[in-house]
């Protein structure tokens, strides 16, 4: 069996089986049931620097609160953390609670978060 959604247990659709524009080209798996998306570390490196990914990984490892979600990639318990992204013009976006895996540096985006 392939990867499963940490929210509802549905099979995740792989990028190869998806026609989902930019997200599928980045290697993002998605859930057709809840519209959540899984961004693995390799895919994240196509949009953020290695240093930023390392900082995010450490923040989940040290400051993230454990949640009742298992990582679809490595089965580790995921953690949640409030994240504020900065736009290219240096203004901050609204914060969101992002689920991340402290083991493999993958991220789960609930519907509407990405």
TrEMBL record:
Protein name: Uncharacterized protein
Ranges for region Disordered: 1-21
């Amino acid at each position: 069996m392939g990867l499963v959604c940490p929210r509802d247990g549905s099979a995740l659709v792989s990028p190869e089986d998806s026609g989902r524009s930019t997200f599928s080209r980045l290697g993002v798996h998605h859930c057709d049931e809840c519209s959540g998306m899984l961004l693995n570390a390799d895919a994240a490196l196509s949009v953020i620097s290695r240093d930023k990914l390392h900082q995010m990984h450490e923040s989940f490892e040290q400051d993230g609160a454990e949640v009742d979600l298992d990582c679809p990639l490595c089965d580790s318990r995921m953690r949640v953390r409030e994240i504020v992204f900065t736009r290219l013009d240096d203004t901050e976006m609204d914060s969101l609670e992002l689920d991340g895996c402290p083991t493999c540096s993958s991220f789960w985006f609930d519907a509407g978060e990405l």
